Amino acid sequence: MEIRKPCTLATLYAGPERVIYENSPELHFMNAVCGRLTDDALMLFRETKLFGGFPPVVDTPYRRFEGLDEIRDFAEGFLDVFHADGASLTPVIQTRANGRSVTELVLNLIIDGEIEQVPMFIVGDLRAKDTLDEVRMYCHFSYVPGLTAYRKPMFTPAHLEMGDPGLLTGAVREYYSALHYVPAVDVERIMKATGENCKFGGYGPYGSSGHEALTREDIRKKYEHMADYIPRCVGMRYETIIDDGVTCVLEWVHIVSEEGQKRLGRVALSGIAAYERGDDGLLCAIRICDYAGYERTIDWSKTPVSQEEAFRTNLVRSFPRGVGRKEQM
Q1: Residue 68 parent element (H or E)
Q2: What is the pLDDT, as a whole number, of residue 223?
Q3: Distances (CA, A) of 249 to 83, 238, 277, 328
Q4: From start to end of 2-80, where are the E strands?
Q5: Helix (H) or strand (E) segment spanning residue 172
Q6: Is the pLDDT of residue 329 over 50?
Q7: φ/ψ (deg, to 5) at 48
């Protein structure tokens, strides 16, 4: 079968040096779902999470599934959402740390006799080494038929403040300190945190190139563009940190200022990114999966909450000056 529109996640990042634990439960779960082995998928969960008595969860770009009955619905209906006859997985990168396991993979969907490839993050909150409390899936909305560009924040921030770069280490900390300095992104500081051959991308929209040809100057221009609105208009509050010393994966929710909402139509969304360190300690890869830039295309008749509620979520008047301090931490 021919690949309809190849994605570039595997082309950009796959290699023999990548260690993939095939029995990692989030990967085991997705393999079972793709193979229509629903009972095998459900065996990875229990009636409640290990602590708190809460139901297990699978959160997807198109719906949140809570409890074993709903997770069964997810497993049985997953391929139908994509109008697929079958599917397989190509794991590319795996990051296991801090009680979580993340597999970045290519979902190979069989649709009308052709293969449709979808780059995805699969995040597993581990109950134990071979069981799960929660799974969160991320891909660009354009790969999911009928989905609009809204991902309700999955986490409720304890404070409506940007993530503290002090929680991060090395080049990732330096990058975030520069990215969230008010009043504008410090582009030069970001460039000094990235290696000469840093790769950018892999999770672009359906039909995109994956940014495999970006030069260092291209990356600079991207951050110069971001400096027009980050962080005055929108900020990131990371709610999970999965860092194995090489790759740091951050799940975040947006915080939006009044300026961002009025000028750009920004709205709080959930997103994820992976930052990979090279042998020199600088960033050698930046992989971001969110819906930034598509906010004005949202069809509010298709969202789980009203436009009014979405615009109230994580809204602040403005961001305090000095966020992400310029001085070295």
Answers
A1: helix 67-81
A2: 92
A3: 30, 10, 11, 22
A4: 57-59, 64-66
A5: helix 170-179
A6: no
A7: -135, 160
CA–CA distance, 85 with 12 (Å, rounded to integer): 27
Three-state DSSP class for residue 247: strand
Report the SS3 class of residue 297: helix
CA separation, residue 209 to residues 1, 121, 137 (Å): 21, 18, 22
Pairwise CA distance, residues 150 & 298, whole Å: 6
Separation CA 153–CA 98 (nearest Å): 21
Contact 247, 274 (CB under 8 A): yes
CA distances (Å), 189 to each of 84, 182, 194, 294, in order?
45, 14, 9, 28
User: What is the distance in angstroms between the CA of the first residue and the CA of the last residue of the chain?
Assistant: 52
pTM of the complete model beyond 0.85 = yes
Which one, of 93, 91, 95, lies nearest residue 107 by Cα? 91
Widest distance between CA atoms in the chain: 56
pLDDT of residue 324: 44
Stronger pLDDT, 247 or 204, i.e. the higher one: 247
Neighbours of 131 (CB within 10 A): 17
Considering only CA atoms, give the Rg of the chain: 19
- Which residues, 6 or more positions from 228, have their beta carbon under 8 angstroms from its beta carbon? 184
pLDDT over 90 (residue 328):
no
Main-chain dihedrals φ then ψ at residue 259, nearest 5 degrees: -60, -45
Rounded to 5 degrees, φ, ψ at 199 are -95, 145
CB 178 within 8 A of CB 185: yes
pLDDT value of residue 209:
60
User: Under 8 Å CB-to-CB from 51, ≥6 apart: which residues?
Assistant: none
Q: For 311, left (φ over 0), alpha (ψ -120 to 50), or beta?
A: alpha
User: Parallel, antiparallel, or unpaired for β 315-316 and 131-138?
Assistant: unpaired
Q: Which two tokens stand for residue 242?
A: 């999965």
